[in-house]
Amino acid sequence: MTRVLMVCTGNICRSLMAHAVLDQRAREAGVDIVVDSAGVSDEEAGNRPDPRAQRVLREHGYEVPDHRARQVRAEDFADFDLILAMTDTHLARLQRLHRRAGAAADVTIALYRDWDPDGTGQVPDPWYGDYSDFIDTLECIERVTPRLLEDLRA
User: Fold this and answer.
1) For residue 84, what are the β-bridge partners?
2) Residues whose CB is less than 8 angstroms from the CB of residue 8 and which lie 6 or more positions away in sequence, other chains included
3) N or C: which end of the chain has fewer CB within 10 A?
4) What is the structure's pLDDT at 139?
5) Would you say 120 and 5 are in contact if contact means Cβ atoms under 8 Å apart?
6) CA torsion angle for 35, 124, 68, 80 (degrees, to 10)?
7) Count of Cβ atoms closer than 10 Å to residue 45 Cβ
8) How many CB atoms lie within 10 A of CB 20?
9) For the chain, what percent of residues have pLDDT higher than 70?
10) Which domains does the chain have, with CATH numbers?
11) What keywords appear on the UniProt entry (predicted)?
12) Per residue in 115-141, pLDDT tens?
């Protein structure tokens, strides 16, 4: 069973939304994976998902995971097969943490939008925006999920 970790800054918006969408779509498709999410910062640790993220997920038919924000831990590099960063900054931070952790595990650390049919780049951060920014973020996640799921199924 493949284990996937989504990572953003605080783990209350982007990574949580990607976690929710992939988890639900995988269950619907009968793909046996484990999905979790975390942040590179401990700033939001213990907090529930942003209410705007919860609203957008629910309004688009997704279940909101019973999740509390957490920071990436050294053991995540051994516990997960695929760790996906929402931005280049997150990717660089994860790569540094991986080296520091001395993790010898065979983990793939990649940029989430590498699976985006519309191109690579950053998953937009809706935190400072309004409801429409959360919609934009969800649309990006919904573009990535089918391709990611296809690779995970193989």
Assistant:
1) 6, 110
2) 14, 15, 16, 37, 39, 40, 85, 86, 87, 90, 123, 125
3) C
4) 98
5) no
6) 30
7) 15
8) 27
9) 98
10) 2-153 (3.40.50.2300)
11) Hydrolase, Protein phosphatase
12) 999 988 999 999 999 999 999 999 999
Number of helices (H) and strands (E) in the chain: give both, helices first: 5, 4
Q: What one-character DSSP code corresponds to residue 129?
A: S
pLDDT value at residue 154: 82
For residue 62, the one-letter residue type is Y
Quick one: tokens of 56? 């957008």
SS3 91: helix
> Would you please indicate which residues are annotated as catalytic (active-site) residues?
8, 14, 125
CA distance 4 to 149: 11
Q: For residue 107, how many other CB atoms are within 10 A of its CB? A: 18
Longest CA–CA span in the chain (Å) reads 42
Placement of tokens 């619907």 in the chain: 28
Q: How many CB atoms lie within 10 A of CB 105?
A: 13
Return the structure tokens found at 7: 């990572």
